Every structure is written in structure tokens, then in C-alpha cells.
Amino acid sequence: MPHDLASLWRRLEDIVGNSHMDADPESTSAFAVDGLVPSLTVRPGTQDEVAEVVSACAAEGAALVPWGGGTAMGTGNRPERVDVVVRLDRLDRIVEFDPDNLCVTVEAGMPLARLQELIAEKKVLLPLDPPDGARVTVGGLVAANLSGPRRLQHGTIRDWVLGMRVVLPDGERIRCGGRVIKNVSGYDMNKLFIRSFGTLGIVTEVTVKLLPMPAAQASVMGLFPDLSGAAAVVEKVLASFLLPEALDLLDPGALDLLAPALGHGATGGFALVAGFTGSREVVARQVRDMEVLIAEWGGTTHLFQEADSVRAWAAITDVFRALPEDPLRVLCTMAVPIGRTAGTMASVRVRAAEQGLTATLSAHAGSGILRAAFRPTHGSSGEGAIPGMAAAIEILRGEAAAVGGSLVIQEASPRLKERIDAWGRPGSGFATMRRIKVEFDPQRVCSPGRFLGGI
Amino acid sequence: MAQSVLVEDLRQVVGEANVLNTPVHLQLYQYDAYLEERRPDVVVFAHSTEEVVGIIKVCNAHGVPFVPRGGGTNLSGGTIPFKGGVVIEMIRMNRLLEVDQRSLRARVQPGMFNLELGNALALLGYQFLPDPASQKAATLGGNVAENSGGPHCFKYGVTTNHVVGLTVVLPDGEIAEFGGMAPDAPGYDLTGVFVGSEGTFGVCTEVVVRIVRMPEGVKTMLAIYDSIERGSETVSAIVAAGMVPATLEMMDQLVIQAVEQSIHCGLPVDCATVLIIEIDGLKDDLEAQSEAIVRLCMEHGAREVRVAKNEGERALLWAGRRGAFGAVARLSPSYLVCDGTVPRTALPTVLKKVAEVGEKYDLKIPNVFHAGDGNLHPLILFDWRNAEQKARVMKAGMEILALCVELGGTISGEHGVGLEKMDSLRLVLSEADIRSQLRVKRAFDPKDLANPGKIFPAPLEVVGAS
Q1: Which residues contact B42 (CB under 8 A, 6 or more apart)?
Q2: Phi, psi for residue B414 in degrees, rounded to 5
């Protein structure tokens, strides 16, 4: 709790006006972080107001959590405190759109989907496709380093950010980077704030590179009776000249969830979906080569052209939204060396079954990312199942660690989070990370306790 | 005699043969490709991460600073031991440790030359995309320290986009692993923070890089113009047409003339500029793309467009650009390489203004520029023996950087701040920006032992007082 809630309210009211504040538990409960309901929410309307809000929180000893679209709020450990949620939805303007130089500067609360719509008229795009694309904001994309299938060809937001403006935990405003592609004028501060989960301040403005829109797109899905055929095709594609934009592997559970969207029957098998964009010639050639490869390895092919391809990828990206609600469900991301992706998918399926869990798995097979949903197989949905779940997740984390990777919990009940660390054990770089946190936020104003090792 | 104890302690770590401290040896390590010189107290050759740990622990025990050094090609004084101390020569840690083709990663020691890595990967059909012009002599460790660019940045990004893991010996002698073979390691992105830190966060002893397949096809073109503006307009037209070439390089008349004198690659010495365009990818549409580009060049007033028909012709089109810096060295005893960056569309404006700066200070300024990413390298010619002229050169250089900033750009695209640009850093960073960067420096190096005296100008109060 802040030292004096009434005093904090007055200070914030002076900054944003009371119509942009809320302390009614009815509404603040919608902004709970892992069950912690904030004392109040505040909606600054400008970047300067964000700075003033942060200063006020620091002065009053209040802990704050920035909130964009809220899509990544389940990620991380339960914070030590959440006094104020700083909503960024009013910071949703384009600051400067420069299509000739392929870049755009936006405020952090701009929803990604709306940005894409606004810049599409100039035939450019930001080629990133995180889950919940309709809700996710540019600031959230940055703070949580969210990514989707297209990271295979386009990397993650760290490869697209040219510059940003940040409000530090003491309320000071800084600029990182700029608006040019090459920039080594001082340290690369953008990287510090990307994937910092609101623990080093609030990102208020972002400048990103853009890409010309491709002329054509299509996707090929191969359905395989078992994982080995699909995995073999992944390896062949990665070793070939082909340049798929995305290459996702779906296990039978994920494939079932997608049956209505992708229009195939239940198969009980695995699928590999490859997305291609570019000129008509290169898309057509890659579709052809892909179909041949799939057939060679015993798969059957389905082709999605243009708008159908877009719809197919939207469904795959948000596959876990089709899962039935279950309070014991845990969503995780496992990151492993690219060449280990399919192998890890196989071993996780075995381990999960041994632990009495049902796994639903979807992997960016050319990027080393496995997304997983776990739930108890036999309806033991009570609280009693939680210790077992926690132990099982640690065992699965061991599968990733065995190949030098990690398992991060994206979403789990607060009760489960009490028993298992969302990030896993910190490595040898942690001492430096902790010193960075202390340098930037000695008072622990910003999202305290949420990140790795209690940062 | 503290000096001799330091030397003795270092000998204990790496053996007598790997410690140099005679005046002649030290003189060899007092400069890089920038214009200043400072002599180290001792030079040590490291052969392993453990040796680097030992060296840095000795530095800590003696409170002596250290500077890691690779090929010494730095253009901003990054490898000059400004406050003396120990130069850690990394050049012997030059092995390619692992190539994991299935995971598209390679693990490399930092003393390996960029080109050597390129050659080793090429045998397997792969490439490491950052390829700075100095790649023959620049090491991977140097690329990491400076976040090097090269002619392929417009499509493929810079070093930071291709480095995914680092083993680092921190300034207190502890070993830390940032990132690695697997992506998205939890925690802050210290790999990304370390890349471009100019040796001020410690010494990297292993680098994990992204490798990619060689493209199926490459097509190289060279367009010749009677006006720089028309060349720049073509670049914008190509991008506006939705194409993303791997390379868009330009050089101006003075450079072309120098290149022709030295390597005779058949460029017309009376033209205003040449534009080198390279596209790569699947071969299916390269022909169509190249035809479209040639058409755009001609529409924008190109006098002639040459399209390489084979590898030999491609090498010839590139020869001029690759040899540009060397050739310019024939024009005068010394030159200062500027490294400003502007949004691409501001290139014609900035070039015109650079010419004005040349006139104002009575200096010749040939230009080489990465037109796709707006990175320009005006080369200010002078004679280092002429102190008055050198002073004019420094002023002209500052003015050019200020121009870049005014047009929305920055003071360094790929050469770093080092010693050279400390005084111009305030053109782009506020006091708050500088303070925040110094916080990161303190987190890595609270005792200020790693390459001290670089990047950040003295605090304003001190400047005012002096």
C-alpha cells in the first residue's frame, strides 16, 4: 500500500483529472495482476503525464504496473505489490508516419492491429504477429517481447525497434536510439527496455522499421500420421534455399482445436504449416517445392491462398484461445535450440503423459519456440491437484534445460504461481541484471517482483 | 615498482612469452585506425576464457584499467588505451568452435576475423550476414563491441540482429553467459545491451551467431549517373516499388576517380556517382526484379546500367566499392572518415550541405555512402603534418555530424563513439539520456576499469568550470 492513498489520489487527480482515475473495486478488479487488485487505476493522456504519474507514485511510495492491452499480464511472478495500474490506452496516437523511409513512430498504447490498418494504405506493414493481435499494444509487444509464427523470417520486435521514449522509475524521461537503421551513438538502450516487463520504467513511444507489403501469400499444410515425417520436412526446409516466413508444427491436440478453422477432419496426427510471402513467382515456386517435400515424407497437403492463408495463421497463432476454460490450465513457452524443437515436442509429450498431464503443443519449428498448454488429464480439478501440477511443470522445465533452453509460464492460477517460479532459476548473468534494476529502480516502484529472480 | 609487480602477476597468468612491455612493443599498441595515440602499460595475449578471468582479476587487484583489442581497425579510437593500463589482445582466440547447421547457429571465439568466419561458413553453404568493409582485418569481438554494419544492413540489419549469445568476462573477473543457442533466455536482454558497448562492459570470449543459408541467387547491378540527386532518387524509387535489395551503395566522383587510378575497374571518371544495387533470394523472380530496377534507374536519368552476368563481372562491379577507402588514401596523406546517418530520403540534402562544408573550410571531401540505410561516410582529406589544416578538419567533421542530427539522423551509424565523438554525443543525447546510460555502465563496471574514458563526455559542470 502507498503511505497515504488519499494523498496519492489528490496528486494524480492534479495530473490527469479524476475522470481518468478509478478506485472503485468493481472496476479495478479487472486490472488485477495475479489476483492483486490495485488500489486505483490511472489513465494519463500524454507522455508528460505518464512521467508525472510515475514521479507521484515514487514520491508517495506506491508500486505501479503499466498496462497496455493486458495480453501479457499473466506472464511472470506475482508482483510484491500493485498499488497503481497505469493504463496506457489513451496514448494511442501516431506521432509520425514516414512511409518513404519505412518507419513509423507511435505512442505505446497504440493497438498493433490498428497500427497495421492505418499504415496499410501506404502498402507497408510491421511484420510481427503476436497472439491476441487485436488487443496487444505496441508498448506491450516491446515490454513482453511478444512474437508469433513470422519470427522465423522477421525476428522479434528487437529487430524492428529503431528508437523509443521511456519514463524511468524516478519520473525522468529519456530517449533511446532514434529513427535511423544504423545507430551506434552510445549504448543500445532499446535492448534494455525490450522484454523488461515494466520493471525499468514505462515505454511511452516507439519508432519501428516497416516493410513493403508483399505482392502475394500462400500457405501449405502437411498432415502427417506421426511426428517424424513432419520433423523431417522441417529439417529439409531449413536446409534448403526456401525462405518460409513461418513454419509451425502442431500436435494432435492443437490440430483438433484448429479443425474448424483449417477445415480438415480430426486426424489424430501432426501438422506442419509453412507460410510464404513475396512475389507471385517465389510464392508459387515455394508452394510447389513444399508440396513435393510433404508428399515425399508421407504427408497429405492442403493449400491456403491469400485471405485463406491469413485466416489460417490467425487461428494457429491464437490456437490456445480455443481451449476450454480450466482453472488448472497452465500456458507455457519453451525455448530450445532450433534443431531441438521437434525432439523437445516429442519428449514433452511423453513426460507430460507420465505426469498425468494432457499437453497441447504448437511450435514455431524454425525458431526453437514451443508453446504448450497443460492440464490434468483426469478431472482432478480441485486445489489438491496444484502441488502435482507444479512438480510436473518443473520436470518439463528440465526437458528444456537439458538442451540449454528455458520454460516460462505465460499464464497460470495465482495458487500455482505460489509454488513454481514463472521464469525458472536465473543464470550467470543475473548479478548484472539485479544491479541494473537497483540502478534504475532502487525504490522498487515499477512492477516489483514480477520478473526473473524477483527483479 | 608497482608496474613490475603488475607485469609479474600477468606473467603468472599467461606465461612470460605472452606479456609484452618493451617500449617498442607498447608503441605498436598505442593506436588504431583513428587519429589519436595513447601508450598502454603492458600488452597481454589471451588464449582462453580462464586466462581472461586471470588477467582481469590481476587488473582488479592493482586497480588498473584494461582494454580488449582485436584487429585494431576501430575508426573512433575504441581500442586506444586512453588511461593506460593493460591491453588484452584477443587475436589468438580465433577458433570456430561449433557450427550447428540444424539450429542455424555457430559458436565462435572473438579473435576470429569476420571474413575467416565467412569463408569457413561458405564451404558449408552458409553465411554470417554482417560484413563490414574491414572484414579482412576486423574480428568478431570487434564487430560485437562496435555493433558493426556493412553494405547489407538495409535488408539484413547490423551485428546485433545476428548475435544471440555471449560468454563475457565481467569487469570484476566473473564469467557470465548471456543468451545462447536457445532463443528468448529469461531476464533482461544483456546480449543486446552488450553488443555495441565498445569494450566498456567487459571482455567477450565467445560469441553465438545466427547463420543463414547462402541465397539461391544473387544479381548485381551498377548504375552510372551525372547527378547525385538522381542516384538518390532511384534508391527511393526502388524502395517505393516494394523491393528490398540486399545492397544499395553509392560513391561520388572524387572517390570514383581515386578508385580508377588505383584499381582500374572501368568506371567513367567524369560521372557524378555510381550506385551499386544487389538483390538476392530465390532465383525465380531475380530476373524480373533486376529488369524492374534497371528500368527505374533509366527512368531516373542513369547514363548507363551494368548488370553482372557472372561471378567475375560481379566481383568487378564490387571491386571499386570494396577498394574505395584504400584508394582514397592515395589522394592525401590522411583522411578523417565521418560516419553520420540520416533518414534515407534526406541523403541528397545532406550531401549538398557536406559539399558546402567542404567549401567553407577549403577541404576536399569525397563521399562513400550506404544509400539504403542513409549512412554516409564523407572522407575529409588532409595532411596530418599540417596542424592548422587538421583543426579545420575536426571542425568540418563536427559540422557534418550536426547536419546529420538536424536532418533527423545521428552522429554514428557504425563506427562508434570511442574518443572521436565524445564531444558530439550531446548533439543526440540529453543529460538524462547520458545519466541513464551511465547507470548501465555502473551496473556492469562499478570500478570503471573496462575501457575507461570513452563514449561519455565529462559532466557539464566540469566542462563549465574549466
Answers
A1: B6, B7, B10, B19, B20, B21, B26, B85, B86, B87
A2: -155, -5
Across the strands, what pairs with B225?
B273, B302
Helix (H, G, I), strand (E, B) or coil at A103: strand
Rounded to a whole number of angstroms, the distance between the first and last alpha carbons of chain B is: 33
* DSSP string of B186-202, one letter each residue: SS--HHHHHTTSTTSS-
Q: What are A332's three cell numbers?
A: 507455457
Q: C-alpha A419: how far from its chain's center?
A: 23
pTM: 0.97
Instruction: Please state which CATH number belongs to domain A94-212.
Output: 3.30.465.10
pLDDT (tens digit per residue) in A124-160: 999 999 999 999 999 999 999 999 999 999 999 999 9
Q: How confident is the model at residue B465 (pLDDT cuts 50, 70, 90)?
A: very low
Burial class (CB in 10 A: 0-12, 13-18, 19+), B1: exposed
- Residues paired with residue A173 on neighbouring β-strands, in sequence order: A167
* Contacting residues of A for B281, CB less than 8 Å apart: 243, 278, 282
What ipTM was reported for this prediction?
A: 0.97
Q: How far apart are CA B182 and CA A335, in angstroms?
A: 6
Lookup: cell for B284: 525465380
Question: Is B461 a member of any domain?
Answer: no
- Beta strand B86-89 with B66-69 is parallel
Would the CB atoms of B442 and A439 count as touching at under 8 Å? yes
Query: Per residue in B94-107, pLDDT tens?
Result: 999 999 999 999 99
Residues B209, B237 within the same domain: no
CA-CA distance, A416 to A411, in Å (whole number)? 10
Amino acid at B65: P
**CA-based nearest distance A382→chain B, Å:** 31
Domain range A216-319, CATH class:
alpha beta
Interface test with B, best of A185, A204, A280, A420 (most B CBs within 10 A): A185
